[in-house]
C-alpha cells in the first residue's frame, strides 16, 4: 500500500511535529509497566525466602518496600506518560484543525457549497475530537503493552528456555481464536460505522423537522424511519457480537490459563532435578505477567479501526484538489470582466455552461435572468473564482483569474448570495468583517447606506446585539440586509448580487434598491434578480437558458428581440396585476 493511502502512516505524518513528546510518553509508559512488574519479582522472592526458612523481618520488609516502590513507580510513570501524550495529542489535534481550516480556504468554493455544512462540521469537530482518547492512549500504552511481554520472555529464556516455551503454549492457540474473531473485521466495522452515521442522520432529521412532521401529521412515518435506523444499527451490532462470541470466550479463557501449562511442566522439571525452586517460583510469577499486557493491547483493536476510518475522512478533505493560484499579486487597473469560450461541468457531469462569451465593462450594471437552473449563478460563481472553468478563460482586466492570487481576487469582489451566513457575534462585528480595520463610524455609515441602520437600532442592544448562530436571532430579511451592509463596507470594485433581495419584502427591497443606487456608483455590478422590475435600468441584461446565452442587451432591446425575455416580462407583469 502506498504510504499516502495508509491511514496510520498519514496519522504519523500529522503527528510528526510532536514526535519527541510521543517517544517520551512511550518510554514513560514502558517504565511504568516495567515498574509494575517489580511486585511480581518481590512476591516470588518473598515466597522463596519463606521456603528457605528466612526469619529476618527486615529482609521481608525490604522486598515489600521494593513492591511498594514498583507500584508507586507504575502509577507515577503512567500518569506522566498520560500527561505528555495528552499534551502532544491536544497540540496535534489543534494542528490538524488548523490544517483543515487552511485547506478549506484553498479548495474551490464550489466544494464548500456542494458539501453539506454538517458533514464538514463533523470532520472538523466531532471526528477530530474523537481521535483524542485513542491517539493519547494508543501510542504509549499499546507500545508498552507489547514491549513488556517480550522483555519477560527474554528473561524467562535466560532463566530456563523450557519454562519460557511452556509459558507460550497458550499463545498460538489464543491467536487462532483471535484470527477467527478478527475475520472480516474491517468490513464489519465499516458496516457498523455506516449504520451509526445513518442512525445519527435520521435522528438529526427527525429532531430538526419535528415542526413539519407534526404540522403534516407525519409522526408515524417519520418515527418509523427513525426506529428502523435505530433497530438496524442495534441488530447489526448484536449479530456481529454473536458471530464472534464463541471465539472471544475461548480467547479470554485460554490465554490467561498459562499456569495450566507452566505448573505441570515445571513440576516435572523440578522432580527431575533440572529446575531449581527459585527459578520455578520466578517462572510461575512472571508467566502471569505475559498475557495481561497482550490482552490490554487487544483492547485497542476497535480504536485502531475507528482511527483508520477517521483519518481516512480527514485525509479526504486534506487531499481535495485545490485551486491552483500564484502567490505574487498582479497589477489590476480596471474591473473589466471577460468570459471567452467558457464551458463548465462538475467532474464527469453534464455540462452546465456551454461556450459562453461575454464582456462586462467596468462601472456597469449587468443583470442575469432566465429559468431556474439555467446557469445564471454558475456564471457569477465562475467570475468569483468559486470553481475553475472546464474550458475557456475568465479574465479580469485582461488577466486570466487563474493567474491572480485568490486573496487578491477576493479583495476585488464582494459577493452577496440569497443565503448569507452571519457569525454568532454582534451586528457590529458581523458588518465589520467586510473591512476588519473599519471604525465603528464606518460600520454605522455602511448600515445607513443600505437602509438597515434604523432597524439595527431597534434591536434589543442595537449594534451590540448578538445575532446567534448563523444569525438565528434575526429574520431572513434582516440577515440579508446586514450581509449587504458588510459588502458595502468592503467597498470592492466588483459587486455580485446573487438574488440578494430574495428574502426581503417589496417595501424593503425598494428602499434597499434606492440605497444601493448610491453605493454602487463607480462599481462593476453583476446581479441575479427574481423580480424583473428591479433590473430594468441595468446597462446590460443577459438572458441565460440551458447553460447558454440566448440574448443580451438593454431592457428595451430584449423586449423587442428576445422571445424568452418577452415571455418572462409578461409573466412578471401578470403577477403584479394579480397582486
From TrEMBL:
**Domain ABC transporter, chain residue ranges per copy:** 337-571
How this chain sits in the membrane, per its record, is: Multi-pass membrane protein
Entry-linked Pfam families: ABC_membrane, ABC_tran
Residue limits of the ABC transmembrane type-1 domain? 23-306
* EC number of the protein: 3.6.3.-
- Subcellular localization: Cell membrane
InterPro entries named among the record's database cross-references: AAA+_ATPase, ABC1_TM_dom, ABC1_TM_sf, ABC_transporter-like_ATP-bd, ABC_transporter-like_CS, P-loop_NTPase, Type_1_exporter
Read off the PROSITE patterns from this record. Answer: ABC_TM1F, ABC_TRANSPORTER_1, ABC_TRANSPORTER_2
Q: Which domain of life is it from?
A: Bacteria
Kindly provide the name given to this protein in its UniProt entry. Putative multidrug export ATP-binding/permease protein SAV1866
This protein's species is Blautia obeum
Amino acid at each position: 500500500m502506498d504510504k499516502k493511502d495508509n491511514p496510520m502512516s498519514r496519522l504519523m505524518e500529522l503527528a510528526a511535529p510532536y514526535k519527541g513528546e510521543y517517544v517520551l510518553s512511550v518510554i514513560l509508559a514502558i517504565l511504568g509497566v516495567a515498574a509494575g512488574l517489580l511486585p511480581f519479582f518481590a512476591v516470588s522472592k518473598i515466597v522463596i525466602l519463606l521456603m528457605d526458612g528466612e526469619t529476618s523481618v527486615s529482609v521481608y520488609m525490604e522486598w515489600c518496600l521494593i513492591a511498594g516502590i514498583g507500584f508507586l513507580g507504575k502509577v507515577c510513570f503512567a500518569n506522566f506518560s498520560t500527561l505528555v501524550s495528552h499534551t502532544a495529542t491536544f497540540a496535534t489535534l489543534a494542528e490538524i484543525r488548523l490544517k483543515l481550516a487552511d485547506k478549506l480556504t484553498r479548495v474551490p468554493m464550489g466544494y464548500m457549497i456542494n458539501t453539506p455544512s454538517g458533514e464538514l462540521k463533523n470532520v472538523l469537530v466531532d471526528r477530530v475530537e474523537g481521535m483524542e482518547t485513542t491517539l493519547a492512549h494508543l501510542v504509549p500504552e499499546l507500545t508498552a503493552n507489547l514491549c513488556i511481554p517480550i522483555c519477560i520472555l527474554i528473561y524467562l529464556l535466560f532463566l530456563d528456555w523450557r519454562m519460557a516455551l511452556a509459558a507460550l503454549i497458550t499463545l498460538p492457540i489464543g491467536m487462532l481464536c483471535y484470527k477467527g474473531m478478527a475475520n472480516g473485521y474491517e468490513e464489519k466495522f465499516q458496516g457498523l460505522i455506516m449504520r451509526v452515521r445513518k442512525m445519527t442522520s435520521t435522528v438529526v432529521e427527525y429532531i430538526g423537522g419535528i415542526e413539519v412532521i407534526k404540522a403534516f401529521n407525519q409522526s408515524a412515518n417519520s418515527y418509523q424511519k427513525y426506529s428502523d435506523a435505530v433497530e438496524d444499527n442495534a441488530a447489526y451490532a448484536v449479530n456481529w457480537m454473536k458471530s464472534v462470541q464463541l471465539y472471544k470466550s475461548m480467547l479470554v479463557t485460554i490465554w490467561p490459563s498459562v499456569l495450566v501449562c507452566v505448573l505441570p511442566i515445571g513440576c516435572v522439571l523440578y522432580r527431575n532435578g533440572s529446575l531449581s525452586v527459585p527459578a520455578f517460583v520466578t517462572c510461575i510469577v512472571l508467566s502471569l505477567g505475559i498475557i495481561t499486557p497482550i490482552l490490554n493491547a487487544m483492547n485497542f483493536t476497535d480504536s485502531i479501526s475507528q482511527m483508520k476510518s477517521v483519518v481516512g475522512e480527514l485525509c479526504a478533505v486534506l487531499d481535495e484538489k485545490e485551486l491552483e493560484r500564484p502567490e505574487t499579486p498582479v497589477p489590476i487597473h480596471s474591473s473589466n470582466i471577460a468570459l471567452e469560450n467558457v464551458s463548465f461541468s462538475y467532474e464527469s457531469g453534464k455540462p452546465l455552461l456551454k461556450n459562453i462569451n461575454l464582456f462586462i465593462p467596468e462601472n456597469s450594471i449587468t443583470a442575469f435572468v432566465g429559468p431556474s437552473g439555467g446557469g445564471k449563478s454558475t456564471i457569477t460563481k465562475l467570475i468569483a473564482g468559486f470553481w475553475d472553468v472546464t474550458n475557456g478563460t475568465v479574465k479580469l482586466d485582461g488577466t486570466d483569474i487563474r493567474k491572480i492570487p485568490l486573496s487578491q481576487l477576493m479583495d476585488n469582489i464582494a459577493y452577496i448570495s440569497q443565503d448569507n451566513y452571519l457569525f454568532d457575534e454582534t451586528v457590529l462585528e458581523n458588518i465589520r468583517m467586510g473591512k476588519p480595520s473599519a471604525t465603528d463610524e464606518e460600520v454605522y455609515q455602511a448600515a445607513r447606506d443600505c437602509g438597515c441602520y434604523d432597524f439595527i437600532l431597534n434591536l434589543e442592544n442595537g449594534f451590540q446585539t448578538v445575532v446567534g448562530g448563523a444569525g438565528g436571532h434575526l429574520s431572513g430579511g434582516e440577515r440579508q440586509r446586514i450581509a449587504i451592509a458588510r459588502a458595502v463596507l468592503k467597498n470592492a470594485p466588483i459587486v455580485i448580487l446573487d438574488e440578494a433581495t430574495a428574502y426581503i419584502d417589496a417595501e424593503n427591497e425598494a428602499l434597499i434598491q434606492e440605497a444601493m443606487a448610491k453605493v454602487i456608483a463607480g462599481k462593476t455590478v453583476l446581479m441575479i434578480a427574481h423580480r424583473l422590475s428591479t433590473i430594468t435600468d441595468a446597462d446590460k441584461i443577459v438572458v441565460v437558458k440551458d447553460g447558454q446565452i440566448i440574448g443580451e442587451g438593454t431592457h428595451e432591446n430584449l423586449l423587442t428581440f428576445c422571445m424568452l425575455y418577452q415571455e418572462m416580462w409578461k409573466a412578471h407583469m401578470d403577477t403584479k396585476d394579480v397582486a
